[in-house]
């Protein structure tokens, strides 16, 4: 009888230990999954995104990282007036077109360009630069500008939290590119060369 009781007790103890170890492993696995999920939840501050449209047979593509306002004064604060800006975060924003475009009486040949601006209180300079692949404005050189022109900024009372570009079709040969962030936006039209 003692032997049977001892064997039974040892068996119960063994099963109990296995369950404890199994529960520990399951608990540790669950903790690891929760930590991984928490890391994935961490919000990217300047998400990479793009805007594009077809205008006639022209495909216009804008590629940029979209920083947030996060309670800061952007224009005239974080971004000093009258300084070249890569018009996005991280890598320079780039714009690509498969057709020649007419913008403000100037021709932008089909290709890929770094898109820079010089924000000012009353007027912005818009720049298409041949060096499209650079970090920020680190390698920006005015001699690589393909076209430059001026635009008037528009102001709003509402805050646009994240930088946003839009490419929109006006008709089969004309489109518009706009940039909005904080309380400021700019836009300009282009025509597709036939």
Overview of this protein structure:
By secondary structure, this protein is α+β, with helices and mostly antiparallel strands. The chain is 21% helix and 42% strand. The chain has two domains: 1-42; 48-192, no CATH class.
Describe, in short, the structure shown.
This protein is of the alpha+beta class and 194 residues long.
Helix content: 10-25%
Report, as a whole number of angstroms, the end-to-end distance.
101 Å
- Secondary structure tally: strands: 10
Low-confidence runs (pLDDT<50, min 5 residues)?
none
- Report the major sheet: 6 strands, antiparallel
* Percentage of β-strand residues: 35-45%
- Spell out the helices and strands N to C: HEEEEEEEEEE
Chain-averaged pLDDT? 86
Radius of gyration: 28 Å
Protein name: DUF2911 domain-containing protein
InterPro entries: DUF2911
Organism: Aureibaculum marinum
